[in-house]
Amino acid sequence: MSLPYTTSQDKVPFFLMAGSCAIESKDLAYEIAERIKQITDSMGIPFIFKGSYRKANRTKIDSFTGIGDILALEILKEVGQHFQVPTVTDIHESAEAAMAAPYVDVLQIPAFLCRQTDLLAAAAQTGRAVNIKKGQFMSGASMKFAVEKVKHENPEALVYLTDRGNSFGYGDLVVDFRNLPEMAAFQVPVIMDCTHSLQRPNQGSGITGGQPALIETIAKAAIAVGADGLFIETHPNPSIAKSDGANMLPLDQLEGLLEKLMKIREAIL
Amino acid sequence: MSLPYTTSQDKVPFFLMAGSCAIESKDLAYEIAERIKQITDSMGIPFIFKGSYRKANRTKIDSFTGIGDILALEILKEVGQHFQVPTVTDIHESAEAAMAAPYVDVLQIPAFLCRQTDLLAAAAQTGRAVNIKKGQFMSGASMKFAVEKVKHENPEALVYLTDRGNSFGYGDLVVDFRNLPEMAAFQVPVIMDCTHSLQRPNQGSGITGGQPALIETIAKAAIAVGADGLFIETHPNPSIAKSDGANMLPLDQLEGLLEKLMKIREAIL
Amino acid sequence: MSLPYTTSQDKVPFFLMAGSCAIESKDLAYEIAERIKQITDSMGIPFIFKGSYRKANRTKIDSFTGIGDILALEILKEVGQHFQVPTVTDIHESAEAAMAAPYVDVLQIPAFLCRQTDLLAAAAQTGRAVNIKKGQFMSGASMKFAVEKVKHENPEALVYLTDRGNSFGYGDLVVDFRNLPEMAAFQVPVIMDCTHSLQRPNQGSGITGGQPALIETIAKAAIAVGADGLFIETHPNPSIAKSDGANMLPLDQLEGLLEKLMKIREAIL
Amino acid sequence: MSLPYTTSQDKVPFFLMAGSCAIESKDLAYEIAERIKQITDSMGIPFIFKGSYRKANRTKIDSFTGIGDILALEILKEVGQHFQVPTVTDIHESAEAAMAAPYVDVLQIPAFLCRQTDLLAAAAQTGRAVNIKKGQFMSGASMKFAVEKVKHENPEALVYLTDRGNSFGYGDLVVDFRNLPEMAAFQVPVIMDCTHSLQRPNQGSGITGGQPALIETIAKAAIAVGADGLFIETHPNPSIAKSDGANMLPLDQLEGLLEKLMKIREAIL
Questions:
Q1: Mean pLDDT across C221-235
Q2: From the CB of residue B70, how many other CB atoms can be counted at a distance below 10 Å?
Q3: How far apart are CA A162 and CA A143, in angstroms?
């Protein structure tokens, strides 16, 4: 599947990496992908469907972690083929790179794992594109070394860098928009994750909180400063989502949000 | 002089609060005011001229602090009258409110002092508009109490709130753009200070550093998320400015920057 | 009154700066001073009585701010004379330095105001000792410049530096114990404020929160790394204190705490 | 090998987890272990020898990562048997748990990986003790869930929790000593990592910096607030160490440091 953009640039529309958090079922994945595809097609926005086959770093041991890796990966592949969209999923250990690569177009490195050399190398070796999330403890400038780890294994690799905020005390994250131009300087497309950057970590309950009312604020600022893409998790009914429900955008708000963002994008082209 | 906006709103152009940092001389003040006035008039951007008559919290005892309070205030007044622009200056102790009020249209409360009840009250009592800078240690939401302190003394007071970043470790500030909508919810115009939010405090040298290449990034994000105004310090030659030179925008870059920002503003109206 | 220590040193017992937050009444001030004096005399710990005549930076406009400046200052003076202990109070604008100096032995500069050159100079000019609280936005190393501002006005001034934590996100402070040796390097006694360093600022309610159960943790670490003095606010019944009740040590726990701390102090002498 | 302490307690001497960072050679490992063993035996301090068989998250792709996993693990085992000391090494992916377990007594979970459920579970399943480093983005209180993940797989598992500081801006870490009593409340031994908590991450050079002069400050504070153990990396000549040299304690300073710390420990027993 053809992927949007190979370097950071501001001469084209931004692209959207979106989907539910975890793959919960085929029906739900199709419902979400179909609706996003309709919206993005009508607006000329390139779309990459995102779904996790496993949640590997939930706060609590008894949180939902998935429906089974291969089952979820097959749903991802079917979504990609049925809707003709590229897909992305996150991997957590190096052995998962080869497992997941046949099913998706982009392998995503979670933020906590962005310094794990073996994982970056394994992802690179598959030949897939690699989307590296910037750790909550990392500067944008330091992500240069993560890009180099991937390129070292596969100089042709398409690498994306995604910001999802930085630790700001224990219970909050802050998005430092200086990181977007810093990361774009490495000649890779840069993405703003408007979902996880609004998490409220380290809650006493063991359930990460969120602030979905601020998704629009984060997204607008990202587009204005030149993000090449946005990462948004969305769900027809976030209150029943099995993970990250506190931060998801209700699916029926996506179109209105993208319309506002496209106007800003056009203003900076 | 008529001041722009009495509440936060997104149906009009943003306004610009700009000038040099300290008033260094009448010639320089006129040069800067004249150029900004030309630019903003041609673009329909309301303009408030800013100048400090005294720098009261320089890091080091031997830093430049001013040319004399009354001398500087008279220059501010002349600039206002000559160019027909409202003016703003910062005050540091409550007795300065009555001293400075006859010369300017807006009294500004420095960020470190935004919780000093006596200072806020004294500013309110003059009847002048009050621009409160958010402390580097304050959330946007907590600025509600600062607004209330002013309104308690003068319920008719026009209050502005300005963000200039939050402490992020010792040597850096981060701008949390969530604060702009949070502060706008108090029904006051909100301003992004694109100069001081890029300071690098706590440098071993005792000279605060900066990152002027990122002014555009901060300004664009601010406009995109709905800032009513921008605060920018500018100088024909920042390298010889007597304070804050490390963060100032070269005056000849102002017009190009504002043109980009106006496009973003129009995209969100 | 003779003040403890003129430079940072580890060959003597630590000293205690303690009292209520605000001076609420003469009876309460005497009750607290008497009890602390008994305890510290029996343990050979030098004691400085602390009381505020005015609270100038309460979060909310309707918070308690004092019983009247001169009335409170006279109580402070009487406490000093009656119990033969030096006293300390905080000032907020430069004009207060001359007002407060005749009543106390030490003038304290609040943390938010630690960069206000005029205030530091005015305190220095009184000839009183000056206790500068490190701003929540300051490194220990940067306090060198605050010390220099005082010494510039009065080279003989006795200066204390007090740490009270650094901003850590919006709703929390963290104590960075690296700051104590950094500040001691300026040849001034360094103090750990075990009360305000446990504040929880920026609460939605406008009432700063606290964690008094952790006072012992902060105090023990401070003594172990060589603090010359401790600052502790205490009250017979913190739940009815008119300010900072959320962080005060119950007066009847002071003796037990000091006993533990003295053992650690002796271990490092 | 018998391990020190199964719960957090203050009635016994602290224990020491120490060694070089990476296993560079058998000779060096023996030299370091022998010297530490002499010192700790003479002082009655339980000792666990630490060595990494692989550095998996170096900043740069061309940094030293190890001499070979099994070769290094065999050296670790020989050190344990020769000096009769328990040993600890860190693992990075779940498959490494079973690989490393036969060679060491404690499996250590790196800070970046402390939320990876599979890794914690795999470590637990080996029956080895598990030392979990608190992530730079985690509160002490949130480590409860990490302990639960291990105990869920192996209710009998001996779990240690180690603090190594929290992100404080991009280029610095701060140690929040409130976390030690918070983690001790989970009834596990708590350890202060005096080496990595002084790192300076996100350096432009890609080489993490350090502040070894402050090791004593961090260690003293930790002992004073009740740490059960200390983690210290040491090297006969830190300037030639192949990783983390910027933060290591010169081996010839270890004895003097421990003597000071033992006095503080005795003062709080």
A1: 97
A2: 12
A3: 10
Domain CATH for C134? 3.20.20.70
Q: Does A59 touch chain D (CB under 8 A)?
A: yes
Each residue of A230-239: pLDDT tens digit? 999 999 998 8
Q: Which residues contact A157 (CB under 8 A, 6 or more apart)?
A: A124, A127, A129, A130, A150, A151
How confident is the model over C152-176, as a mean pLDDT? 97
Identify whether B5 is part of a domain: no
Write out the two tokens for D254.
Answer: 């270890």
Q: Are B203 and D204 in contact (CB under 8 A)?
A: no
Residue A148: its chain D contacts at CB < 8 A? 60-61
**Element holding D63 (H helix, E strand):** none
Does residue B62 fall inside a structural domain?
yes
Angle between helix D26-43 and helix D254-268 axes, rounded to 10 deg: 40
- Judging contacts by C-beta atoms under 8 Å, the chain D residues touching residue B200 are none
CA distances from B133 to B140, B163, C143 (A): 10, 6, 23
B53-57, C259-263, D199-203: which is most confident: C259-263
Structure confidence at residue C209 (pLDDT) = 78
pLDDT at B263: 97
What is the predicted pLDDT for the residue at C132? Answer: 98
Instruction: Provide the β-strand partners of residue B192.
Output: B163, B230
Residue B139 token pair: 């959330």
ipTM of the assembly?
A: 0.96
Residue B40 and residue B47: Cα distance in Å, rounded? Answer: 7
Which of D136, D167, D168, D175 should one mutate to test binding to chain B, selecting the residue with the greatest count of B CBs within 10 A? D168
Asked if B66 and B53 count as a contact pair (C-beta separation under 8 A), the reply is yes
Answer whether residue A96 is part of any domain.
yes
For residue A98, what are the domain limits?
15-268
pLDDT over 90 at C103, yes or no: yes
Domain count of the fold of chain D: 1
Q: How many alpha carbons lie under 13 Å from residue B196 in its C-beta half-sphere? A: 22
Cα(C78)–Cα(C87) distance, integer angstroms: 10
pLDDT category at D243 given cuts 50, 70, 90 is confident
Query: SS3 string of A134-202?
Result: CCCCCCCCCHHHHHHHHHHHCCCCCEEEEECCEECCCCCEECCCCHHHHHHCCCCCEEEECCHHHCECC
The set of residues, in sequence order, having a beta carbon less than 8 Å from that of B177 and lying 6+ positions away, is: A175, A177, A217, A218, A221, B221, B222, B225
Cα gap A199→A201, rounded to integer Å? 6
Mean pLDDT, residues B222-234 taken together: 97
Q: What chain C residue is nearest to D173 in terms of C-alpha separation?
A: C176
Residue D231 lies in a domain: yes
Nearest to B5 by CA among B23, B19, B21, B17: B17
A57: CB partners within 8 A, 6+ apart: A92, A110, A112, D115, D116, D117
Residue in B with minimal Cα distance to A262: B267
Identify which of D7, D13, D14, D3 has the alpha carbon closest to the alpha carbon of residue D230.
Answer: D14
Per-residue pLDDT, averaged over C25-30, amounts to: 96
Question: Coil, helix or strand for B51?
Answer: strand
| R_g (Cα) of chain A, nearest Å | 17
How far is Cα D127 from Cα D108, in angstroms, rounded to an integer? 13
Closest partner residue to C167 among B61, B117, B137, by Cβ? B137
Kindly write down the DSSP assignment for every residue of B153-171, as one continuous string.
Answer: H-TT--EEEEE--EE-SSS
Contact list, D168 vs chain B (CB under 8 Å):
169-170
Q: Which of A112, A196, A199 to mutate to test the interface with D (most CBs of D within 10 A)?
A: A112
- Cβ distance C177 to D223 less than 8 Å, yes or no, reads no
Q: Long-range pairs for D63-71 at CB < 8 Å and ≥24 separation? A: D63/D243, D64/D22, D64/D242, D64/D243, D65/A117, D65/D22, D66/D22, D66/D23, D67/D22, D67/D23, D67/D24, D67/D25, D69/D99
